[in-house]
Every structure is written in structure tokens, then in C-alpha cells.
Amino acid sequence: MGNLYDLNNLDKFNKEIQANPKDANAYFNRAIVKSKLDDLIGAIDDYSKVIEFNPRDAEAYNNRGLLYKKAGEINLAVKDFTKAIEIDPNDENAYHNRGNSKSKLGQFKEAILDYNKAIDINPKVRNSHHGRATAKDNIGDKIGAIEDYTKAIEINPIDANSYYDRGITKASMGDKIGACTDLNKAGELGNAKAYDLLKIYDTKE
User: Fold this and answer.
1) Is 146 exposed, middle or buried (0-12, 13-18, 19+ CB in 10 A)?
2) Which residues contact 161 (CB under 8 A, 6 or more apart)?
3) Full set of structural domains in the chain with CATH
4) Residue 123 CB contacts under 8 Å (≥ 6 apart), including other chains
5) Where does the pLDDT of residue 3 fall: very low under 50, low under 70, confident under 90, or very high at 90 and above?
6) Least C-beta-crowded within 10 Å: which of 26, 81, 164, 177?
7) How does residue 194 score in pLDDT terms, banded at 50, 70 and 90?
């Protein structure tokens, strides 16, 4: 449920659209508010109106793709991210988001290609390194996964999730000491699950 500020903005953009039903900016802004209010269908409809008025709006495609992904419509999300990339081939977010969606579909090798592109455009994106690490882990490239988790940690030294996931990967490779070190660090940084897992590894011979 949104706060009063969001509800007031919703009313504001409703009135703007009533005054000018072809105001693409008002639809775009209302979509943002509806998304914050968890009105996914309404937000998707508004982004669709933006695209109707401006078929070259890469950001609208990208944002609608994120909502499709959240709604579980992963294939529709991939289509929107692909369209955003066609419009703006240097949109690192669209590549990253399509990589996430392809990972969700189990298309890990294709996801890695998208993460590669996102990282080529901006090497300092922690999320793309983490996403690529997870995809590599899923195709059995444990060393590559650890390298990417490590890079994500270099970019963001308080990245609890990358410590956690790197710890799990190290454990799967038989590196108990490395796994426990990473899990302990993840716990210190706020990942409560890490301490539960640490207890299991600590009790193993």
C-alpha cells in the first residue's frame, strides 16, 4: 500500500491525463506511481500507452519488462528488454535485466552473453558481475563464478549476498575453510541465513 504522497501523485497524474489523454509523460509518471502502489496491471497498461505514443521509448520498454518479470511473465519481459536494446544498444540496464530474465528461464549461457555486454558497457556494475557469477555456477563453471563474485565484492565490499553465494560455491568445491570465511563475513554484513549455513559446515568433518 502506498503512502499519501503516492496517492496524491496518482490523483495529480489522473487529472493530467483527463486534461490531455495523449500526454505520454503523464502516463509514464503514473506508471511509476502505480508500480509503487503494487498495481502491476495498471502500471503495465500505462507503459503500453507511452509506447503507443512513442514506440522509440527504450525506458518504457525496460520498465514494462521489469513489471512483466515481477508478474511472472518472463517471456514478455525478454521481448521488452530486447526491444529496449534494439532502440538503445548501449543500455546496460536492458542487457542486465534480460540476463536476469534468461537466467530465470534456465537459459544460463544466453544470460552470460547479456551480462558480458552489460559489463562491457559498464565494468563497475556489481549486479551484472553477481548475475554472471550465478549463471556460471549453474553451468558448472565454479572458478568463473568465484572470479565474478570476487569482482562484485571488489566493487561493493559490503555486498553480503556475494560473500554468501561465493561461500556456497567454495563449499561445493570442497573449500570448507574458504566457505566458512565467506559465510561468516556475509553474516557480519547482515545475511542471517549465512550463520545457519555456517553451523552446518562447521559440524562437518
Assistant:
1) buried
2) 130, 186, 191
3) 123-205 (1.25.40.10)
4) none
5) low
6) 177
7) very high
